[in-house]
Amino acid sequence: METRLKTSLIFTICLVVIGVGPSLIFADPNEKPWSPNTKINWSDFQGTPTDEYDAWLSWYDVTDWTLNLDNDGVNCSYSFSNLDFTAVMIKDESWVNEDKKDRKLLNHERKHLDLAQAGLQSIQDELKDQVYTCDPALDTEAGLIQKTENFVDVMIDRNIQLTINYDDAWIDFGNKGQREWNVKINSLLDIYQYGQYSNSTGTPLRLEFTGDAGKDAIFEDTRDWDKTNILTVDKACNDDDFFTILVQFGGAIDHCIITNGSDLIIWTSQPNRSYGTN
Predict the structure, then answer these.
(1) Ordered strands of the 229-232 beta sheet
(2) CA torsion sign, 24 to 25 to 30 to 32?
(3) Contact 110, 31 (CB under 8 A)
């Protein structure tokens, strides 16, 4: 059984103070969907500005997917196909104060749409190529659709927090914060669009050491050719979640630790390094 759904939510992102909330218009004919070749210009900001912010970028997400349910009364499973998650800029609800226009602010606003798309692609990546089990007696098609929609909503809420962090970095650290987030956002787009980074850094890997919570996480440091040092991983992970770790590492070679119940988890972008517990 296949059920195809297409849903939309609307968000607004502003600068200098962040604002996230629903728009009164569900869809707008003056829209600019994200694509690898999309380039936002000041001419796309066609709304009426206010004195409260320097600029405001409004966007909504289109989440298009097909639910494939296989339930014979004994075995139950479902998967997704035709996944297409896209961030779309709403021109009539995006604006900029004329005296605030400059190249740096425009780049910041462009990256807002990139970050929105990266977040949507992370959700799409979570759903693709997965087969989920369900209860043949209790799970209905409508229930699974609602469950999926709830999951997408939770993921989008988490991604909105990233936009808040992004604006905070711009406000607190200026150009330095923007440069760091440029790398993070580009890395996120690369990993979810192409399955790999465009640079030489590795994709974060999750290493699970069952029952080792409370132990030290160690690794071999082989930088000295004539000896091997055993060092401790001291950095804490922000969460036990691929997308969060990807943002935390920001495309850099790094590692961190976190506990999950009784297990010790090491996240690393250094797959050639040996890790263990002690």
Answers:
(1) 229-232, 217-221, 275-277
(2) positive
(3) no
